[in-house]
Design goal:
Number of helices: 6
Number of strands: 4
Number of domains: 1
Strand order of the largest sheet: 1-2-3-4
Helix content: 55-70%
Strand content: 5-15%
Order of helices and strands: HHHEEHHEEH
Length: about 210
Protein backbone atom coordinates (compact mmCIF):
# COMPACT_ATOMS: atom_id res chain seq x y z
CA UNK A 1 0.00 0.00 0.00
CA UNK A 2 2.75 2.46 0.96
CA UNK A 3 4.66 1.47 -2.16
CA UNK A 4 1.66 2.43 -4.28
CA UNK A 5 1.54 5.81 -2.56
CA UNK A 6 5.21 6.42 -3.27
CA UNK A 7 4.88 5.47 -6.94
CA UNK A 8 2.13 8.07 -7.24
CA UNK A 9 4.79 10.77 -6.95
CA UNK A 10 6.41 9.65 -10.21
CA UNK A 11 3.23 8.84 -12.12
CA UNK A 12 3.03 12.36 -13.57
CA UNK A 13 5.91 14.84 -13.61
CA UNK A 14 3.87 17.83 -12.46
CA UNK A 15 2.96 17.92 -8.78
CA UNK A 16 -0.02 20.11 -9.54
CA UNK A 17 -1.30 17.56 -12.06
CA UNK A 18 -0.73 14.76 -9.54
CA UNK A 19 -2.85 16.53 -6.97
CA UNK A 20 -5.55 17.38 -9.50
CA UNK A 21 -5.87 13.85 -10.91
CA UNK A 22 -5.24 11.82 -7.78
CA UNK A 23 -8.83 11.23 -6.71
CA UNK A 24 -10.00 10.36 -10.20
CA UNK A 25 -7.21 7.84 -10.83
CA UNK A 26 -6.94 6.17 -7.43
CA UNK A 27 -10.40 6.55 -5.94
CA UNK A 28 -10.96 2.78 -5.98
CA UNK A 29 -7.95 1.86 -3.84
CA UNK A 30 -9.74 2.24 -0.54
CA UNK A 31 -9.75 4.69 2.39
CA UNK A 32 -6.36 3.62 3.78
CA UNK A 33 -4.62 4.32 0.48
CA UNK A 34 -6.41 7.67 0.19
CA UNK A 35 -5.31 8.62 3.71
CA UNK A 36 -1.67 7.78 2.99
CA UNK A 37 -1.63 9.71 -0.28
CA UNK A 38 -3.42 12.68 1.27
CA UNK A 39 -0.50 12.94 3.70
CA UNK A 40 2.21 12.26 1.09
CA UNK A 41 1.07 14.78 -1.52
CA UNK A 42 1.32 17.90 0.71
CA UNK A 43 4.77 16.82 1.89
CA UNK A 44 5.91 16.32 -1.70
CA UNK A 45 4.48 19.68 -2.72
CA UNK A 46 6.10 21.57 0.16
CA UNK A 47 9.35 19.66 -0.31
CA UNK A 48 9.49 20.72 -3.95
CA UNK A 49 8.64 24.32 -3.09
CA UNK A 50 11.31 24.52 -0.41
CA UNK A 51 13.88 23.00 -2.78
CA UNK A 52 13.06 25.55 -5.48
CA UNK A 53 13.13 28.37 -2.95
CA UNK A 54 16.55 27.21 -1.79
CA UNK A 55 17.79 27.17 -5.40
CA UNK A 56 16.55 30.73 -5.92
CA UNK A 57 18.13 31.99 -2.68
CA UNK A 58 21.44 30.23 -3.34
CA UNK A 59 21.59 31.53 -6.90
CA UNK A 60 20.97 35.12 -5.81
CA UNK A 61 23.38 34.74 -2.90
CA UNK A 62 26.19 33.32 -5.05
CA UNK A 63 25.69 36.05 -7.63
CA UNK A 64 25.75 38.87 -5.11
CA UNK A 65 28.75 37.52 -3.20
CA UNK A 66 30.72 36.96 -6.41
CA UNK A 67 29.99 40.54 -7.54
CA UNK A 68 31.18 41.94 -4.22
CA UNK A 69 34.36 39.87 -4.44
CA UNK A 70 34.92 41.09 -8.01
CA UNK A 71 34.37 44.71 -7.02
CA UNK A 72 36.88 44.31 -4.19
CA UNK A 73 39.65 42.33 -5.87
CA UNK A 74 39.38 42.92 -9.63
CA UNK A 75 38.85 46.69 -9.96
CA UNK A 76 41.72 48.46 -11.73
CA UNK A 77 43.56 45.18 -12.28
CA UNK A 78 44.51 43.73 -15.67
CA UNK A 79 42.53 40.68 -16.70
CA UNK A 80 43.48 37.39 -15.07
CA UNK A 81 43.61 34.26 -17.27
CA UNK A 82 43.16 30.59 -16.37
CA UNK A 83 43.24 27.31 -18.30
CA UNK A 84 45.30 28.62 -21.16
CA UNK A 85 43.24 31.82 -21.43
CA UNK A 86 39.99 29.83 -21.77
CA UNK A 87 38.67 31.59 -18.66
CA UNK A 88 39.28 35.26 -17.92
CA UNK A 89 38.42 37.35 -14.89
CA UNK A 90 37.93 40.98 -15.87
CA UNK A 91 35.95 43.62 -13.98
CA UNK A 92 33.32 45.57 -15.92
CA UNK A 93 30.32 47.68 -15.00
CA UNK A 94 27.49 46.90 -17.40
CA UNK A 95 24.71 49.47 -17.84
CA UNK A 96 23.03 47.38 -20.53
CA UNK A 97 21.42 43.98 -20.71
CA UNK A 98 23.05 40.57 -21.14
CA UNK A 99 26.57 40.93 -22.61
CA UNK A 100 26.20 44.74 -22.48
CA UNK A 101 23.43 44.86 -25.09
CA UNK A 102 21.84 48.32 -25.08
CA UNK A 103 24.50 49.88 -22.86
CA UNK A 104 24.73 52.92 -25.15
CA UNK A 105 21.02 53.72 -25.06
CA UNK A 106 19.86 56.94 -23.36
CA UNK A 107 19.26 56.64 -19.64
CA UNK A 108 15.46 56.87 -19.96
CA UNK A 109 15.47 54.06 -22.52
CA UNK A 110 17.66 51.86 -20.31
CA UNK A 111 15.34 52.50 -17.39
CA UNK A 112 12.27 51.62 -19.45
CA UNK A 113 13.80 48.45 -20.91
CA UNK A 114 16.05 47.10 -18.20
CA UNK A 115 14.15 48.09 -15.05
CA UNK A 116 10.49 48.52 -15.93
CA UNK A 117 10.51 45.95 -18.74
CA UNK A 118 12.51 43.41 -16.77
CA UNK A 119 10.24 43.86 -13.75
CA UNK A 120 7.16 43.13 -15.85
CA UNK A 121 8.74 40.03 -17.37
CA UNK A 122 9.75 38.71 -13.95
CA UNK A 123 6.27 39.32 -12.54
CA UNK A 124 4.77 37.51 -15.53
CA UNK A 125 7.10 34.54 -15.00
CA UNK A 126 6.25 34.38 -11.30
CA UNK A 127 2.52 34.48 -12.01
CA UNK A 128 2.81 31.73 -14.62
CA UNK A 129 4.77 29.62 -12.15
CA UNK A 130 1.83 29.59 -9.73
CA UNK A 131 -1.05 29.54 -12.21
CA UNK A 132 0.14 27.14 -14.93
CA UNK A 133 1.05 23.47 -14.84
CA UNK A 134 4.64 23.08 -16.05
CA UNK A 135 6.91 20.04 -16.24
CA UNK A 136 9.58 19.90 -13.52
CA UNK A 137 12.43 21.03 -15.79
CA UNK A 138 10.38 24.01 -16.94
CA UNK A 139 9.65 24.95 -13.32
CA UNK A 140 13.35 24.75 -12.50
CA UNK A 141 14.10 26.86 -15.56
CA UNK A 142 11.61 29.54 -14.55
CA UNK A 143 13.07 29.65 -11.03
CA UNK A 144 16.62 30.05 -12.33
CA UNK A 145 15.45 32.78 -14.70
CA UNK A 146 13.67 34.56 -11.84
CA UNK A 147 16.72 34.30 -9.58
CA UNK A 148 19.18 35.61 -12.16
CA UNK A 149 16.84 38.30 -13.42
CA UNK A 150 15.94 39.50 -9.93
CA UNK A 151 19.59 39.66 -8.83
CA UNK A 152 20.63 41.77 -11.82
CA UNK A 153 17.50 43.90 -11.48
CA UNK A 154 18.33 44.68 -7.86
CA UNK A 155 21.79 45.88 -8.91
CA UNK A 156 20.38 48.09 -11.65
CA UNK A 157 17.89 49.68 -9.27
CA UNK A 158 20.50 50.22 -6.54
CA UNK A 159 23.59 51.11 -8.57
CA UNK A 160 22.46 51.83 -12.12
CA UNK A 161 24.58 48.96 -13.45
CA UNK A 162 25.50 45.33 -12.89
CA UNK A 163 29.00 44.00 -12.26
CA UNK A 164 30.33 41.53 -14.83
CA UNK A 165 33.61 39.68 -14.44
CA UNK A 166 33.62 36.39 -16.38
CA UNK A 167 34.73 35.80 -19.96
CA UNK A 168 35.25 32.42 -21.63
CA UNK A 169 36.36 31.30 -25.05
CA UNK A 170 39.08 29.82 -27.21
CA UNK A 171 41.33 32.07 -29.24
CA UNK A 172 39.30 34.73 -31.05
CA UNK A 173 35.99 33.01 -30.25
CA UNK A 174 34.92 34.50 -26.94
CA UNK A 175 31.81 35.48 -25.07
CA UNK A 176 31.22 38.94 -23.73
CA UNK A 177 31.81 39.62 -20.05
CA UNK A 178 29.04 38.20 -17.87
CA UNK A 179 28.21 37.18 -14.30
CA UNK A 180 26.58 34.32 -12.40
CA UNK A 181 23.11 35.84 -12.72
CA UNK A 182 23.53 35.80 -16.51
CA UNK A 183 24.47 32.13 -16.30
CA UNK A 184 21.32 31.41 -14.28
CA UNK A 185 19.17 33.26 -16.82
CA UNK A 186 20.66 31.35 -19.75
CA UNK A 187 20.42 28.02 -17.94
CA UNK A 188 16.80 28.77 -17.05
CA UNK A 189 15.85 29.65 -20.62
CA UNK A 190 17.60 26.51 -21.92
CA UNK A 191 15.85 24.22 -19.43
CA UNK A 192 12.46 25.80 -20.11
CA UNK A 193 12.77 25.50 -23.89
CA UNK A 194 14.02 21.92 -23.62
CA UNK A 195 11.11 20.94 -21.35
CA UNK A 196 8.51 22.81 -23.39
CA UNK A 197 9.54 21.59 -26.84
CA UNK A 198 10.84 18.14 -26.00
CA UNK A 199 9.46 15.22 -28.05
CA UNK A 200 6.56 13.44 -26.40
CA UNK A 201 5.34 16.44 -24.42
CA UNK A 202 1.65 15.88 -23.71
CA UNK A 203 -1.15 18.35 -24.24
CA UNK A 204 -1.41 19.19 -20.52
CA UNK A 205 2.19 20.46 -20.48
CA UNK A 206 3.82 17.49 -18.73
Amino acid sequence: MIGDAQTLLTWRPSIRVQARDFRRRFSGRGPEFARICDSVMPMATWGARLTLLAIVILTIGCDQVSKRVASTHLVDLPRISYLGDAVRLQYAENRGAFLSLGADLPRWARTALFIVGTSLVLVGCAVSLFTQSWPPLAVLGICLYLAGGASNLADRVADGHVIDFLNIGLGPLRTGIFNIADMAVMAGVTLFLFAYFRPGRSADGT
